[in-house]
Amino acid sequence: MKTWNTARGTAAAAAILSIALLATGCSSGSSASSEPTATIDPASIEPKGLIGLGPNGEKPALPSDVTLTPEQAAKVKAGNFRVGISMQTMDIDFAKVQTTVLKKTFEEHGVQVIGITDAQWKAEKQIGDLENLIQQKPNGILGVPVDDVATAAAFSKVGQSGMKLVMIDQVPKGLKYPTDYQSSVQADGKGNGQVAAQMLASRIPDGGTMGLVNFGNDIFATNERTKGAKEWLAKNRPDIKIKETAFSDPAKAGQVGGDFVTANPDIKGLWVVWDAPALEVISALRGQGANIPVATIDLGQQLTAEIAQGADIVGVGAQRLTDQARAEANAMMLALIGESAPSYIAAPALAVTKSNLTDSFKIVFDAPAPAEIVDACKKNTGCK
Question: Is 213 exposed, middle or buried (0-12, 13-18, 19+ CB in 10 A)?
Fold first, then answer.
């Protein structure tokens, strides 16, 4: 796998925007569709709780369940602890928000972040990154595995070296709680997959076909999104026919998605497993002259801009990245002072359409939406 290429993403955005201005965020499904436009109230479809279970069937705790008392915070500050962070990539908003919030939260509690590594979607690089972090002898390491299997032995060395380990987004195969790792934190992938599917289904006619563009690598977090979509459709829209494809390299998602639609012209909408590949797919579709609605997971800054400008993105099942990262830091700090954190913590799904776009941006990024996004949104009917 390769990293999401920023230059490629910028080109994709330009291609999308050149055509997106022809449509509003709630235009009809495909260019040939005569189905009425559906109005989506994000609050009405947002799950009231957590949908999915943990990687080992654990009942999830909420981020709000993992907080420090003043006494615990004092112990953390007195400990002069040091931690390292091993990311699967640093080229996406997920990683940038996670590391920014982690650093801020640790600094507030006197915990030093000794290093943040970027595996660039390569298992062999992450293995080397982990070895380097372990050699610096921090008190704990937080990490997002590139591959559940290939990096398992490297992550298991963290606990074997006497350090605490908090997993982000998934747990490598074979690692056990609480001996090998002290907590696992992620978004409710199944809930987010369900939200995106429900949004897109509002644009699929009776008996129509929906395409799912999945991630080809065996990753718990993305697998849960696909499961959530399929389970919701089977229960609530069994009339919809489902066709699937998958990519392993995010940079090639556009080619995979474009070829998929060309080979299956009956597809009336695409569900894409996360935002960066979704942008690639939309760019490819626009290049083909196909105007097919898309729903996805993760509210990245670039995707936010596309929605604000009027691209035909029906909606997003967004991760509450700020809440998630704070829970990760809190779980690590509890472990550092010898106290236990839940084995699995999940942030609830956030349903996003253009009608709650800027408020959702603030929830995800813990910062107001940039002025250019706010200004674009004001020109897009129903966007706010």
Answer: buried
Place of tokens 């002290």: 182
Percent share of the chain, pLDDT over 90: 83
Q: Give me the chain's average pLDDT, please.
A: 89
Of residues 300, 226, 288, 218, the one with CA closest to residue 257: 288
**Residues 6 or more apart in contact with residue 68 via CB below 8 angstroms:** 76, 109, 330, 333, 334
Phi, psi of 56 (to 5 degrees): -115, 25
Lowest mean pLDDT: which of 9-13, 119-123, 218-222, 311-315? Answer: 9-13
CB 327 within 8 Å of CB 167: no
Q: How far is CA 203 from CA 16, 181, 295, 351, in A?
A: 20, 43, 10, 16
Task: For residue 178, say if its preceding peptide bond is cis, omega within 30 degrees of 0.
Answer: yes
- For residue 101, give the nearest of 85, 77, 125 by alpha carbon: 85
Judge contact between 338 and 212, C-beta under 8 A.
no
Q: Please classify residue 337 by burial: count the beta carbons closer than 10 Å to its beta carbon, then call 0-12 exposed, 13-18 middle and 19+ buried.
A: middle
Q: Is 114 helix (H, G, I), strand (E, B) or coil?
A: strand
Question: CB under 8 Å to 112, separation ≥6 — which residues?
Answer: 80, 81, 82, 83, 106
Token representation of residue 241:
């026919």
Round to whole Å and give the CA distance between 342 and 271. 32
Provide the angle, in degrees to the nearest 10, between the axes of the packed helices 275-287 and 6-20.
50
| Average pLDDT for 341-368 | 96
Return d(Cα 384, Cα 376) in angstroms, integer. Answer: 10
Q: Per the structure block, which two tokens stand in for 213? A: 């563009």
Residues 214, 217, 222: CA angle, nearest 5 degrees: 55
pTM: 0.84
Q: Which helix or strand (DSSP H or E) is residue 211 part of? A: strand 209-215
pLDDT at residue 29 greater than cutoff 90: no
Q: What is the pLDDT of residues 89-143, one digit of tens each?
A: 998 889 999 999 999 999 999 999 999 999 998 999 999 999 999 999 999 999 9
Which range (70-74, 184-188, 217-221, 345-349) has the least confidence?
217-221
